[in-house]
Amino acid sequence: MPRIFDFTQAIMRRPGPSVVKGLRAGGGADPSFDGVLREHSAYAAALAAAGLGVTMLGPLEDYPDAIFVEDPALVFPEAAILLNPGAPSRAGEGAYLRPALAAQFNQVLELGEGHADGGDVLVLPGRILIGLSARTDRTGAEALAGLLEGLGRPAQVVETPRGVLHQKTASSLIDEETVLASPALAATGVFAGLRVLEVPPGEEAGANVLRINDVLIVGAGYPRLHDLLDGYGARLVPLENTEIAKIDAGFTCMSLRW
Ligand code: CIR
Q1: Is 233 within the bounds of a domain?
Q2: Can you give the pTM of this predicted structure?
Q3: How far does residue 195's CA lie from ligand 1's centre (Å)?
Q4: 3 belongs to a structural domain
Q5: Which CATH number characterizes residue 205's domain?
Q6: Cβ-contact 209, 180 below 8 angstroms
Q7: Residue 116 forms beta bridges with which residues?
Q8: For 62-102, how does the pLDDT look when each residue is reduced to its tens digit (9 = 90+)?
Q9: How many separate domains does the chain show?
Q10: Measured between alpha carbons, how far is 8 from 231 in angstroms, rounded to an integer?
Q11: pLDDT digits 0-9 by tens, 96-149
Q12: How many Å lie between the centroid of ligand 1 and the Cα of residue 90?
């Protein structure tokens, strides 16, 4: 029986030079293009080493944030869903994912109304949490919950604490009984029934980690988090993310996995 983090395939998108103009919530300097390329390549290599076949799509110069392929789409073994990202500059990205999704999935569903980003969607065993954020509005979240229910996947719309970009900026699945979450998100009670590991103080920026098969991809700069996450059935793979972090990258958002 596959676990919900057992995957064989992934889609990514290679960065083009415009990536350095990607959106960032806190302002700040542009990342270096070479640095983004280096970190993105290391991430792709880590996915391959974890056992995934990676389809690398070409750069989209008109869409600086298009490397974050998990915001305009969601995938499950039985279907892909094209979403409607909440940032106006990202609204057109889904059209450029559609051909790759249509080639891989029997069904490509579409969010009919509202806005929702894949970064706000946390797939847990038996249920999916859709976090409301500056990018995901209630109309979009409820429409998405309807599509997911149609796939036989129960979904719940939840509040996300202010000050984080996406629900998964502050929470991640570690194994089938365990999530990692910021203290603020943990306190909301949305993870009832699961073991919740709280991100160590000072390492909040490391809360987005990515479980794939028997590997857990984590940011390199979070030693206390590494200690906390050791021992949940996965080998830790620390990756540098200092340049891509300047445009608010997370590990979950740079690929679609199934
Ligand atoms: C954005 O603001 O849309 C991008 N610069 C970063 C998106 C990161 N995605 C994610 O956390 N799911």
Answers
A1: yes
A2: 0.97
A3: 27
A4: no
A5: 3.75.10.10
A6: yes
A7: 84
A8: 999 999 999 999 999 999 999 999 999 999 999 999 999 99
A9: 1
A10: 23
A11: 999 999 999 999 999 999 999 999 999 999 999 999 999 999 999 999 999 999
A12: 10
The enclosing H or E element of 215 equals: strand 215-219
Say yes or no: CB of residue 131 within 6 Å of ligand 1: no
If DSSP codes are grouped into helix, strand and coil, which group holds residue 96? helix
Coil, helix or strand at residue 203:
coil
Using a 6 Å cutoff on CB, does residue 93 contact ligand 1?
no
List the structure tokens of 211.
């479980």
Q: What angle do CA 244, 245, 251 make, to 5 degrees?
A: 80
- Asked whether 253 lines ligand 1 (CB < 6 A), one says yes
Structure tokens at 140: 């979009």
Closest ligand 1 atom, residue 252 Cα: 12
SS3 state of residue 228 = helix
- Round to whole Å and give the CA distance between 179 and 88: 31
User: For tokens 């991100």, what's the residue?
Assistant: 199
